[in-house]
Amino acid sequence: MAKPVSIEVWNPSGKYRVVSTKPMPGTRWINLLIQNDVRLEICTEKKTILSVEDIIALIGDKCDGVIGQLTEDWGEELFSALSKAGGKAFSNMAVGYNNVDVDAANKYGVAVGNTPGVLTETTAELAASLTLAAARRIVEADEFMRAGLYDGWLPHLFVGNLLKGQTVGVIGAGRIGSAYARMMVEGFKMNLIYYDLYQSTRLEKFVTAYAAFLKANGETPVTWKRAATMDEVLQEADIISLHPVLDKTTYHLVNKERLAKMKKEAILINCSRGPVIDEAALVEHLKHNPMFRVGLDVFEEEPYMKPGLAELKNAIVVPHIASASKVIIINPNPYIKKFRY
Ligand SMILES: NC(=O)c1ccc[n+]([C@@H]2O[C@H](COP(=O)([O-])OP(=O)(O)OC[C@H]3O[C@@H](n4cnc5c(N)ncnc54)[C@H](O)[C@@H]3O)[C@@H](O)[C@H]2O)c1
């Protein structure tokens, strides 16, 4: 669109003009902005991803702040346009901010906000869901059932992986990685190996205490290990879940060589950002290793998948829905706290 045509305006006489590039859930964020003398313009254009040109048109000549989305490319062009319009703040409705060029924002004096911490449990739960679905081949079995192929119980029908006693590997044990690790360790009595640039002391303490609890109850205790290298995790883990930030150091962190280091029957989960995996290399790996399975919430070039991925039975793919749980969608309040004048 050359000019945005569909705009919803709240509090037209407000002193500050703020643009939201998308309608967002709930009304509390709207009320908070209005209480702070904001004229709020929400773009209701029926186009999923707005281009830089679209957003420049939305910013216009006077704009004090923008609330944007992870699908938008917030770099030099947009921060320059926002700054020229008098803008002082940009808030990214996302935990990750790999779509934001923070240096460009600094250059133009625009403060940047994001929403760290609000999606921890919902993202960890989706990673756990994908892990279970991949381990127990839920999608394949569901398709089989609906296709009318089930003609009676068989001992070898859709044999999957038993998680109990296996090793879960977490790459990036920050908020989400640690929450996921705890779910898998406590819920399925898995051993943990993790790799992060920093030590996750709280996670280690949790697994140690849980191991003591299991032992006291006559069960085999779980174990944990902080790996010195990422490759150690890839080689030892049965399940590997990726939870690092996306930056220059984690782009294609999982590539052809690293895929080859994983167990032939390993399961790889990605709920971080698509480019953390070299998706073309992953497609090849899945083709040549039918017992290797993957669960993906994010893709290298969203909304597209690399050719061949959609046809592979050993891949479970969902459309970036880690944040899509009711509590988060109905009550995204922590986000608004980041947006101050
Ligand atoms: N799928 C979704 O909808 C969704 C939702 C929320 C967050 N995310 C993604 O998840 C990411 C993590 O979120 P978080 O809240 O846990 O962030 P966090 O900052 O708490 O954790 C990220 C961890 O990655 C580690 N890390 C950085 N570089 C690394 C490297 N090279 N190797 C190993 N570890 C490295 C950091 O030390 C940190 O502990 C976000 O940046 C975002 O991209 C995705």
Automatic annotation (TrEMBL):
Protein's UniProt keywords contain Lipoprotein: no
Enzyme kind, highest EC tier: oxidoreductase
CC annotations in GO: cytosol; peroxisome
UniProt feature coiled coil, ranges: none
Pfam families, per the entry: 2-Hacid_dh_C (PF02826)
Subcellular location: Peroxisome
The UniProt record lists the keyword NAD: yes
Classification via InterPro entries: D-isomer_2-hydroxyacid_DH, D-isomer_DH_CS1, D-isomer_DH_NAD-bd, NAD(P)-bd_dom_sf
MF terms (GO), sorted A to Z: glyoxylate reductase (NADPH) activity; hydroxypyruvate reductase (NADH) activity; NAD binding
EC number from the UniProt entry: 1.1.1.29
Pathway: Photosynthesis; photorespiration; 3-phospho-D-glycerate from glycine: step 3/4
Record's catalysed reaction(s): (R)-glycerate + NAD(+) = 3-hydroxypyruvate + NADH + H(+)
Keywords: Glycolate pathway, NAD, Oxidoreductase, Peroxisome, Photorespiration
Matches recorded under CDD domains: GDH
Ranges for domain D-isomer specific 2-hydroxyacid dehydrogenase NAD-binding: 129-322
Family: Belongs to the D-isomer specific 2-hydroxyacid dehydrogenase family.
Protein name: glycerate dehydrogenase
Lineage: Eukaryota, Viridiplantae, Streptophyta, Embryophyta, Tracheophyta
